[in-house]
Amino acid sequence: MIWLIYFVEGILSGTTAALSPYITSAFAQHSLTPTVGILSSVIGGVTKLTIAKVLDVFGRPQGYLFCIVLATVGLILMAACNNVEAYAAAQVFYTVGNNGIQYSLSVFVADTSSLRNRGLMQAFAYSPNLITCWLAGPISSAYLNGPGWRWCFGSFSIIIPAITLPLFGPFVYNYYKAKKQGLVPKRESQRTAWQSFLYYGREFDAVGLLLLSAGVALFLLPFNLYTLQEKGWRSPLIICLLVFGIVLTITFAVWERFFAPVTFITYSLLLDRTVLGACCQK
Predict the structure, then answer these.
(1) Residue 203 to residues 53, 262, 263: CA-CA distances in angstroms?
(2) What are the φ and ψ backbone dihedral angles of 204, each rounded to 5 degrees?
(3) pLDDT tens, position by position, 61-86
(4) 164-208, pLDDT tens digit by residue?
(5) How far is CA 102 from CA 3, 47, 171, 208, 276, in A?
(6) For the packed helices 118-126 and 2-26, what is the interaxial angle rounded to 10 degrees?
(7) Got the DSSP string for 65-83?
(8) Cα–Cα distance, 241 to 86 (Å, whole number)
(9) Backbone angles phi, psi at 184, to 5 degrees
């Protein structure tokens, strides 16, 4: 089932990337194609750490199901969007959900394999990419020349739940089996709804997440938006985006160092040369 999920997810990712220029062109905003992709990729990448928290706090099945819902909602919105703004918002939902599904599966593979064999199991799980890279183009062309790109997302909004939900059953079964064996700690609290909201906001470091997401997004967007401005890089909008992006990123580091009750990223990692080098390369 995991192999099939990666297979379908790979086709969907390639098809979405191939259709994106045609969608923005349909709304006469072709120049915004990279902007939409960057915005969804940044938010989707940053929220992986939040998804990891969801998996740890609420459980693997709950986090997996939450990501399926997000991906499906995103696909439905992409099929029904009427402008680039709605398409960009829908793609954020889809990207977060899609990344979350694949991340949940990678965590499951890591949990259920020994360290010695983990690389082999991860490589086997990702092996569908050897096939899907050749399928995205013909599938995209078939939809564009046939029913249209909206039907592509509409079809996948049915296919994705159909192919991912069967794995939810074994997830839930083993989760409750582990609870009966006492392997999952009991979580009982008398918190009110507002107290629970504050508690989980603190556990997920919601402030740090917002600062980092906004900072990175604002810093990267000008590299695609400057061509739309009359003065280019000297445009007040571009300068403001760059300045606010840098300020928010620095503020995130200060927040993590001095104020965050539960850190989103450990401050020592922000100073680690290996981590910084990997992030810059990414």
Answers:
(1) 8, 6, 8
(2) -85, -5
(3) 888 899 999 999 999 998 988 888 88
(4) 999 998 888 888 888 888 777 666 667 777 777 788 788 777 888
(5) 11, 13, 15, 24, 24
(6) 50
(7) HHHHHHHHHHHHHHHH--S
(8) 21
(9) -105, 120
